[in-house]
Amino acid sequence: MRIRTRTTVRTFLAPAWCGAIMLAATGCSPELRPLAAVYTDRQGTAHALLRSCDDDGRVRGPELRGTAVPASEETTPNGARATAPQASREEEPWIGWETRGLHKAADFPLFAPPSPWAAETRGPQTLQPGHSYELTFADPDDSYTYSASVTFDARQLAELAPGEVLTRQGPMTRESFEDLARKAC
Question: In this structure, how many other beta carbons lie within 10 angstroms of the beta carbon of residue 148?
Fold first, then answer.
């Protein structure tokens, strides 16, 4: 009887330990969903598109961070890319805006988030050459189930065809983005 008890305990503990190891190895990062996009309108103004999986259409803490691309990350004449050591997100100087709390998902000029958001701004509020930008937000619930982001620079926005948006998956039509966002939820 004692042997069966040990076997039973091992049978139940093995999957539990495997699950714990998998959680530790994968971390607790939220799922990255295709819910953020950027585009330029007919006048050349950059815009942000934020979509939510929340029933009330909310997003948590949207922000736009632009950081200077170090010269060592620029493409060399032979096409190679060298990468310099990266500063932590808190140490690195950035331009753009950030918000706190919950806000309605929206479509708005990239450097003019809706006024109720009370965004705190840093530096020039226009696309800057030599900068890489990241537009991000998180799941509105405390569960942090998902987040969304899109990374881009001025050149990528300028290369978009009329009617296209830039997403984490690359350029696509706005309709394709809206479909992708709905399916992600």
Answer: 28
Spatial CA neighbour of 36 closest among 142, 144, 146: 146
Which pLDDT value is given to residue 70? 84
Two tokens, residue 83: 């990468």
pLDDT tens-digit map of 108-156: 999 999 999 999 999 999 999 999 999 999 988 877 789 999 999 999 9
Residue 30's alpha-carbon distances to 80, 122, 151, 179, in angstroms, are: 32, 27, 17, 21
Confidence class for position 19, pLDDT limits 50, 70, 90: very low
Q: Please say whether the beta carbons of 118 and 17 come within 8 A.
A: no
Please, which pLDDT band fits residue 61 given cuts at 50, 70 and 90? very high
Q: What is the pLDDT of residue 2?
A: 53
Our measurement of the distance from residue 68's CA atom to the centroid of its chain's CA atoms, rounded to an integer in Å, reads 18
